[in-house]
């Protein structure tokens, strides 16, 4: 939300920046993930997390590549990309705030997306995992700390990926306002310390 509010003050980003136009969808996902996680509905939560990564990668790609001025024009220009679940466009993006971790970030984001894709459809992996949880009494509302820690770790990783992608989709002053203290001390290393890398 900070990135959105700090960006739209320029008067043009609200219409032109595809990522910022997706803030309603992103906010809805974050609210639903919070509710789902609290109620122990982990598989649906994981599906929503996958959506967040997908929309963040595509939004960053469109911001960095489109020369269209309106959201509608951008949707039309990238209709095929938006209708596909493929995230290979991350391979063409450069994440200049990550310096030497650029390729590591791409690899970890793709691995995370691949893992979460196991929960998108009725996969054997997802069904066996649920069956094994049921056998040990880990049903909705009766999760153990291990399951909750794993879910929280995954949520943290996804949110970290989304933060990196949005910081690379807005004007440089926006992450600067977030990552530089009033004293001028830079917190830019914080991106490299996010819970993305193993």
Which term fits the overall shape? globular
Radius of gyration: 18 Å
Strand and helix order: HHHHHHHHHHH
Largest sheet: none
Strand % is: under 5%
Total individual domains: 1
What is the residue-averaged pLDDT?
A: 81
Essential attributes:
198 residues; 0% strand
Detail the topology: elements first, then pairings.
Blueprint: H1 2-7, H2 13-16, H3 18-21, H4 23-38, H5 42-65, H6 71-77, H7 79-83, H8 102-117, H9 124-135, H10 145-167, H11 173-179
Description:
- With about 200 residues, the protein is mainly α.
- It has one domain.
- About 65% of the residues lie in helices and about 0% in strands.
- The chain has helices at about 1-5, 15, 20, 25-40, 40-65, 70-75, 80-85, 100-115, 125-135, 145-165, 175-180.
- It starts with a helix and ends in a 19-residue tail after the last helix.
- The model has no long low-confidence stretch (mean pLDDT about 80).
């Amino acid at each position: 939300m900070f990135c959105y509010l700090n960006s739209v003050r320029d008067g043009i980003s609200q219409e032109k920046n595809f990522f910022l136009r997706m803030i309603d969808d992103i906010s809805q996902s974050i609210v639903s993930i919070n509710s789902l996680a609290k109620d122990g509905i982990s598989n649906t939560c994981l599906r929503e997390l996958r959506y967040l990564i997908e929309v963040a990668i595509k939004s960053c790609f469109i911001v960095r590549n489109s020369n269209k001025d309106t959201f509608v024009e951008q949707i039309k220009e990238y209709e095929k990309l938006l209708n596909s679940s493929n995230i290979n466009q991350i391979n063409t993006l450069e994440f200049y705030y990550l310096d030497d971790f650029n390729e590591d970030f791409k690899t970890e984001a793709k691995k995370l997306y691949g893992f979460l894709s196991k929960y998108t459809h009725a996969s054997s992996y997802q069904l066996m995992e649920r069956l094994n949880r049921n056998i040990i009494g880990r049903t909705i509302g009766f999760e153990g700390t291990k399951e909750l820690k794993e879910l929280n770790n995954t949520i943290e990783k996804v949110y970290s990926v989304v933060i990196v992608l949005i910081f690379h989709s807005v004007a440089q002053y926006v992450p600067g306002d977030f990552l530089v203290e009033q004293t001028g001390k830079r917190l830019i290393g914080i991106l490299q310390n996010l819970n993305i890398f193993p």
